[in-house]
Amino acid sequence: MSTSTAAAREATVRSAMDDIRSIEADLGVTRAGVEAIRDRLVELSTHRDLFSIEEFAPPAEDEKRTSSLYRLSQDADERFALYLQSSRGQVQTPVHNHTTWASVVGFHGQELNRFFERTGGADDPGVEQTHEHMVEAGTGIAMLPDELHSIHIDGEALNFHCYGLALERLETREYFNPTEKRWKPFANVSGIVEARHNLQSC
Fold this sequence. Notes:
Blueprint: H1 3-27, H2 31-44, E1 67-73, E2 79-87, E3 90-92, E4 102-108, E5 111-119, E6 126-135, E7 140-143, E8 148-154, E9 157-165, E10 174-177, E11 182-185, E12 193-194, H3 198-201
Parallel strand pairs: 1-12
Antiparallel strand pairs: 1-2, 2-9, 3-8, 4-7, 4-9, 5-6, 5-8, 10-11
């Protein structure tokens, strides 16, 4: 990667995140706000020359993991975090919430997002699918903190994931265990690859 490409990516990401902070300040954590954030990330994804699958590679074939997260931006107070998720093979998540706003925007490949609502009561909880959306280049999804979804990838994919709070800070999010029919703590993501300082390493 050339120094000029790294500098261009740094500036482009910084501009997008500046706009996203302004969107949240102006519109709040509302449906209109998260959809505007999604649309700004779709614009970021049009910079095809700045984010290559070669540089943001998924785990190697001999690794158990099939997905890697690269951190592109994060504020000092751990808010407004932007990642690239790079995947190969099959990636599946259980139904879960985020406890902060979230947006996923496609860049390469496909990521099926299924959306759910809670059913039953405290003694007999459940979930029911309401709709689904295929995230791919030029499209994305926007979620409020309490919305539920699951992710399904089959093949190579590279997508932007943006959150109102860094993934390591989402201590209270939950996932639904259908076997036990109960909500359980969703472990924080670990092993995130730091990609904010590529310019210095070129």
